Structures are given as C-alpha cells and as structure tokens.
Amino acid sequence: MTAPSPTRRGAARHSELFDALIDLLLAEGFAHLTLDDVAARLRCSKRTLYALAGSKEQLVRAAVVRFFERATVRVEAAVAACAAPADRVAAYLRAVAAELAPASAGFFDDMAAFPPAAEVYARNTEAAARRVGELIGEGVAAGDFRDVPVSFAAETVATTMVAIQQRRIAGATGLADAEAYEALAALLLHGLARP
C-alpha cells in the first residue's frame, strides 16, 4: 500500500482546518478573534491560514460558505429520506434547525454585522425559501396539503426565513435561529394539514 500523496494530505489537512475553524466560529463568533488567535486555537501557523485565504475576512467568508455547503448536503439528505410531502417539509425545516443549533448568538450577531458573511447567509436563506416553496407545491399537487396559493405560502416562509436571518425574530421573540426554524416548521405544517 502506498502512502497518500503530499497533495492529498494537504487537501485533507485544509479540510480538517476548515472544519475546526467552522466549529470555533460557530461556538464563539469571530469579530473578536484575530488571525493570531485563530492560528493558536487551531494549532497551526498564520502561514497555514493564509494558504486557506488571504485575510481574516476572506477566511471567515470561506468558512461560512463551507458551513452552508455542508449543511445543504445534510438537509437534502434528510429530505430524500422522506416520501410524504408533509414529512419532507418537516424534515427540511427541522434539518435546517439542527444545522443551525450549534451556532451561538455571537456567531449570528457577527455574521449579521459582517457584510460578506451576511450576504452568504442571505443567499442561502433565499435558496432555502425557494426549496420550501417547491416542497409545499409538491404537497399541494399531491393533495396532501390544503389547496393554498403556493406562491403565498412560499412568500410567507421566505419572509419569515429572512427575518430569522436578519436577527429580527431573535430580537422580537428571544428565539435562537434554530428554535425559530422549529417553530416555523410546526406552524407551517399545522396550517397546511388537512383537517
């Protein structure tokens, strides 16, 4: 058996560092961290971090992008495991909640205050809202949901998801983003279910 190539080892190390970075950012946020702090916490050199991204801002944005890419794969896997439309909608929103659950309020606050990260979150929120609209449309077409205007239901979900992303729900209700997605799932499913 041959040893992994240096390129493959380097890619694996970069992947491990990104995963550790995501865990750090989710737990603590990032506004207060310097590159020296990040390097010390990840037990690597600043040079290694610069190999991942050219600046702290680029590193944070890349970590946020990777966080949402990883989350999307797992959310879609949860949806694929369900057959019934109501189960698929519930699985989607609950999987989103599960993916956001490890994130601290500091992470969400820092993300909202940092335009490159806020843009990534907003883009992912828009994509998630479109996906929920598709799932609602499938449920209405299958007769599993009441005959509601799909565009209205999708727009209502999108508006709520944007309010979650922009921290308005947290400010108005005290709910963490993950809790808000759980509440949205319950409200949406009970409002769509046939009596």
UniProtKB/TrEMBL annotation:
InterPro entries: Homeodomain-like_sf (IPR009057), HTH-type_TetR-like_transc_reg (IPR050109), HTH_TetR (IPR001647), Tet_transcr_reg_TetR-rel_C_sf (IPR036271). The keyword Ribosomal protein does not apply. Residues 11-71 form the HTH tetR-type domain. The keyword Transcription regulation applies. Pfam families: TetR_N (PF00440). It comes from the Bacteria. Residues 34-53 bind DNA. Keywords: DNA-binding, Transcription, Transcription regulation. GO terms for molecular function: DNA-binding transcription factor activity; transcription cis-regulatory region binding. This is TetR family transcriptional regulator. It comes from Actinomycetospora succinea.
